[in-house]
Structure formats: C-alpha cells, structure tokens
Amino acid sequence: SQQGEEDPQALSIQEGENATMNCSYKTSINNLQWYRQNSGRGLVHLILIRSNEREKHSGRLRVTLDTSKKSSSLLITASRAADTASYFCATRWGGYQKVTFGIGTKLQVIP
Amino acid sequence: GAGVSQSPSNKVTEKGKDVELRCDPISGHTALYWYRQSLGQGLEFLIYFQGNSAPDKSGLPSDRFSAERTGGSVSTLTIQRTQQEDSAVYLCASSSPEGSGRDNEQFFGPGTRLTVL
C-alpha cells in the first residue's frame, strides 16, 4: 500500500509554539500534499510540494520533502488555537490523479 | 461560490437496508473521488472517476458498494444491505481536469455521516 503514515498521531502544544508533523510514504511520488480537517468533516488543501522540490512556504506553513527518505514534514509556526485540527498528508503517484491519504495527525493548540 | 455538496448530511438506517449518498462536484471538475472515514481514522479511498474513463473501483470494500456518475457530473454511492461496520463519514471530492494547472488539489464536500443501527 502507498498509504502514508503521519507521525505523531496526536500532538498537543501551547499557543505560540511551533508544531511539527511528519509523513512517510512507500513508493516514488509525483507530489505530496497536506490537508487540514476540522471537526471530522471536509478536508481543505493547504500546500503541495512536488517531487523535485525540497522546501516550500505558505504563510505560517513550511513543508519539506526528502525523497531519499520518503518523508515530508509540515511545520506550523507560532501556532494559534484555531490551528486545532487533524492534518493529513496525501501522495500522488502513478500516471493519474489519484492520491492516497495518510492516517492523520490530530493537533491540539491550547490557548 | 458553489463548492462540492453532498446529501444527505446525516443518514440513520437500519441494518440490512440500502442507502444512496449523493455528491454534486464543482462544475467543470472531471475527477471525482469517494472516501470513507471511520471515527478518528484516516481517509479510506473507495472509488475514483475521471471523465469518461472507466472508474477505479479498487477501494470498494465489498460488492455491496457501488457508485455511478451520470453525465460526468453528479455521483451516487450506493450501499446495499448495510452493516453496522459501514457506519462512517463518507466524503466526496472533485478536482480540475488533468493538466489544468490545478489538477492536484481536491475540493471536499462536507460529508455524509452514515449510522447503521
């Protein structure tokens, strides 16, 4: 299975601290995406990093990709209570648009 | 703006009954996905439609599950003879045509929470 695995599965931090989540996958990918889910409903796309990129930034988000280790990390800087959510990585591989989601990291930011 | 919509938002049914879940993708999106998410778990891929191509049904857990997409737009996921283990949130997502420049981003609907008693 190509399914990614996020680590840790749960993370609790104080507001203002940085949160780091990791994702590992098994086979070569075209790109890797991070999504956020609030309250067990629809997911929202956060950021995409392509297989030939090593780092990408978007606001308070920083994503890195290490294709040699088949892993990615998502860093949220200066966390806020509103960042409390589950975060999923999704890998696109093969010749078409299908992506495979990991099991998610549940982040709690304590005010 | 019009996003992905799903109906019903909640469905409670009795074991053994059939249910139909509906997904209206964003207009113009040729790719449509169904996922299942059990409580506190990740997303389990069920089925993927892309344009007029044959769907990828590799994620359907049993032959009680089927899905169709009429006219390349609305999709219906049908679960026959529901079982208690079918209880989950069923999420639908759509994305732009491949090569459109934004074909990687999936836009999700709010999901249908299915409870089988």
Overview of the structural elements:
The complex is a heterodimer of chains A (111) and B (117). Chain A is mostly beta strands. Chain A has strands at 5-7, 10-14, 19-24, 31-37, 43-50, 55-58, 61-66, 71-76, 85-92, 99-101, 105-110. In chain A, the strands form 2 sheets. In chain A, strands 2, 4, 5, 9, 10 and 11 form a 6-stranded mixed β-sheet that branches. In chain A, strands 1-3-8-7-6 form a 5-stranded antiparallel β-sheet, with no helix packed on it. With 117 residues, chain B is mainly β. Chain B contains no helices and 10 strands. In chain B, 35% of the residues are buried. The mean pLDDT of chain B is 91. Classes of the chains: A mainly beta (111), B mainly beta (117).
Shape of chain A: globular
Our count of helices of chain A gives: 0
Q: Which percent bin holds the helix content of chain B?
A: under 10%
Quote the average pLDDT of chain A. 89
Q: In this structure, how is the largest beta sheet of chain B organized?
A: 6 strands, mixed
Order of helices and strands of chain B: EEEEEEEEEE
The poorly predicted ranges of chain A are: none
Shape of chain B: globular
Q: Structural class, judged by helices and strands of chain B?
A: mainly beta
The main sheet of chain A comes to: 6 strands, mixed
Number of helices of chain B: 0
Terminal-residue CA separation of chain A: 38 Å
